[in-house]
# Entry
Amino acid sequence: MNQETLVERRVEETRTNPSQDIIPSKTSPSKDGPGQLGAPSAEPIAISVHDLHFYYGKHHALDGITMNVKARRVTALIGPSGCGKSTYLRLFNRMNDLIPLTRIEGKILLGGKDIYSRETDVVSLRRNVGMVFQKSTPFPKSIFDNVAYGLRIVGMKDKNTVSAIVEKSLRGAALWDEVKDRLNKSALALSGGQQQRLCIARALAVGPQVLLMDEPCSALDPTATARIEELIQELKSQYTIIIVTHNMQQAARVSDETGFLFLGKLIEFGPTNKIFQKPDNPMTESYITGRFG
Amino acid sequence: MVGTTQQQAGHADGIALAFRRTRSRRLWVDRLAVYGLSLCAVLVLLPLFSILYGLMHEGLSAVNVDFFTKLPKPVGEPGGGMANAIAGTLVLLGIALAVGVPIGLGTGIYLSEFAERRLAWVIRFVVDVMNGIPSIVYGIFAYTLFVVPMKSFSALSGGAALGIMMIPIVTRTTEEFLRLVPNTLREAGLALGAPRWRVITDVVLSTAMGGIVTGIMVALARVAGETAPLLFTAFGNRFWHENLTQPIAALPLQIFAYAISPFDDWHRQAWAGALVLIAMVFVVNMLASYFVARQSRILSPKK
# Structure
C-alpha cells in the first residue's frame, strides 16, 4: 500500500517535472518524424508513435505514449503486470480492434503512414507486422501447412514457391534441421520451444518488416529460451523487433533499446545500456533493481 | 505460553479420540456409499442388456438374407423382408442430415463466433426449448408445413421432421466445441493477415471438427429410431418408394405396424427390425466415438 502511494507520487513527479521527462519528442523535437535526419547519429526509424492514448471502455489503459522504434533493432518493453505493455504491443498490428468498446487516440506511423487511418487495410498491415504470442499457437495441421498457411490465404498455389518459402522461413527460425524429415507430421507433436519457433517461422513466411513478440519465452524452459534469444539476435539484421517481456535479464540481453511502462505511461525510454545502468528516472531504477513490480 | 501448549496438546488428544471413536462408523458409511453407487451402475446396465438379450432371442432367427433383400410379403404369406424399410430409413436420415446439419452448424458457428451476448442467450434458450419438445409435435409441425400443402405424405416431409429435430443437438454441440478452441488460435490466424471467415473455416472449424462430427452422429443416432414424427409424414410404404414426394417405408414404422399385428411371423420380423435398427445406431455411435478419439489425438498427440 505504501509502496503504491510512493509510486503514484513518483508518477506525478514525472509528469510535473519536465527535466525528468526523457520522452524523445519533448526533449528533442527534431527527431520527431520518421526519416528526419535531425541529428547526425540518427538511425532509420521504422515506427513512430505520437501521443498515443488507449481506452478499454472508460479505463485509460495507455496514457500519452510517444516514442520512435528504430528499424532493424530490438526494442524491449518492460514493466509490471497490468502496466499496458501487451496492450501497447497489440496496437501495432491492430489486434485490439477485435476487443469491443476500445478507443484509440494519437498516431502510430509505420513507414510514415498512420496505421489507424481509414485507408489502412488491416489485413495487409498484419502481413507487414507479424506477431508471436506468449503461448505458442500452432494450428492443428502439419508443420508444413502451419508455415504455408499465410501463403495459402493469399492464394499462392505454386508448390515449388510455397516449399521454397516454407524452407527459408523454417531456416530463418532455426527449426529446419529439426523438422525437415517430418514436415507432414502434426505441429502439435513438437516440443514447446519448437512450437514457438514454428510460430516465428509462420510469421516470417508472409514477409513482414516488423515482428511483435509478446513474452515469447515465458512458457519455455531455459534451454528453449536461450535458443529463442539467439534467434532474436539473428533476426534483427532483417526485421524490426518489438518484444514485451517480464524478464528484465532477457530485456537486457536481447534488446538495443528499452521502454519502461508503468500504469499506462512510458516512464523512460532509451538505449538498453543506459536504462539498466544509469536510468534517469528513479522509478525505472527501483523497478529494475527489483524494489517493486 | 505453557498454558497454550497444554491446551493445544489437549485439543489434539481430543481430536484423535473423536477420530478413533467414529472410525467404525466412517468405514461403514464409506462401504455403504461405494456399494450403493456400484448398484446404480449395475442398474443402468441391466435394461440395456435385457433389451439386447430380448432382441437377440426373439429376432435373431428372422435376420437372414431375405430380411435385407426382400419386400414385405402380403398378409398370410410367410417370409419376405424389410429391404424397403431399411433403405427408407437411410433415405430419411440422408434428408435429415441435409436439413439439420447446415442449419445446426450455421447456428452453432453464429452463437460461438458472432452473436452479441444477449441475442446469443435468447437463441440458446430457444434451441434448448426445441430440444425438449416431444417428437410427435415435430411430426405434426412437419405435417402442417409440408404434407398439407403438398397434399401427400412424403419422404421429404419425414426427413425434414427428423432434420428439424437434429438442429438443437447439432447447434449446441457445435457451439460447445467451437468455444473450446482457444482464442489465441483465432488471434494467431488473424495476425497472419487472414480474414475472419478464413480463420473460422481453416483454423477454428478444423480444430473442432471431431467434436462437431460427433455431435452430428449423436443427433443422427437420436432421430434414427424416432417413430412419432414419421407417423403423419413419411407414413410408411409396403413397396419401394419411387420418388421423394411419395410415402416411404421406415424401420421404426415397420416395426410398429408389425408389432401390433396378430401374426407370429410379423412379430418375429418386428424383433429383427428392432435388432437391425439398434445395430445401425450402434454403428453410428461407434463412428462418433472414433471421431472423438481421433480429435483428442490431434489436440494432444503426445498422449
